[in-house]
Amino acid sequence: xxxxxxxxxxxxxxxxxxxxxxxxxxxxxxxxxxxxxxxxxxxxxxxxxxxxxxxxxxxxxxxxxxxxxxxxxxxxxxxxxxxxxxxxxxxxxxxxxxxxxxxxxxxxxxxxxxxxxxxxxxxxxxxxxxxxxxxxxxxxxxxxxxxxxxxxxxxxxxxxxxxxxxxxxxxxxxxxxxxxxxxxxxxxxxxxxxxxxxxxxxxxxxxxxxxxxxxxxxxxxxxxxxxxxxxxxxxxxxxxxxxxxxxxxxxxxxxxxxxxxxxxxxxxxxxxxxxx
Length: 276
Hints:
Blueprint: H1 3-24, H2 39-42, H3 47-56, H4 61-84, H5 107-128, H6 135-174, E1 193-195, H7 198-207, E2 213-215, H8 216-233, H9 249-264
Parallel strand pairs: 1-2
Helix pairs in contact: 1-3, 3-4, 3-6, 4-6, 5-6
């Protein structure tokens, strides 16, 4: 066991003893508000949050799921205590990435929470550096830390709720209860030489017989057929033909393709026929 894991286990044992003492002293009650809790008692509200965080730091695979389940309960206990004292809003604590993925609907909320956490972290850091910390300042520090860990506990519960199903699925795979997901085959595009005319096609084709050679017109016709077929499958009509005298998308596409080819192929490149 690493020194870090030993320190984590030792700290967990210390926090367990503290929580037992706090419970025996009846520091918290559902019949009082936060103003009735003494300043020195507020810091003990964080005990369950710290226990949840430390259990979450156990990464050994064999016990990962059980440690996450323990951490989950500690975070919920902490959040419920904060709800009692109206330091946290009642929320659905079973959400995960499957039930509530990050999208346009909740991205603003995620950003707002990140800003709020950063503001609380900076607030606590500034107040702790003060040389004149009286009871009022100390109380504000403790309350700010509780509010910060409310946000953290909600985020960590979201992460835990997302990780546990993955661990359960991996465990079933290990025992052969479910088949592993097979990766989808990827379509590999075969290399080819793009040339401007039939004459260049014959020249490049002679120099590189193993690579197919395609003129710019052939390449564009092939891509146009693919696009038309794709639009048919999607129920969209193919693009209508335009005036050939105008600067059409077809002409622009051919010009762009030829310019790209010239950028990557020097003049005479590939024309090695009858050369040593």
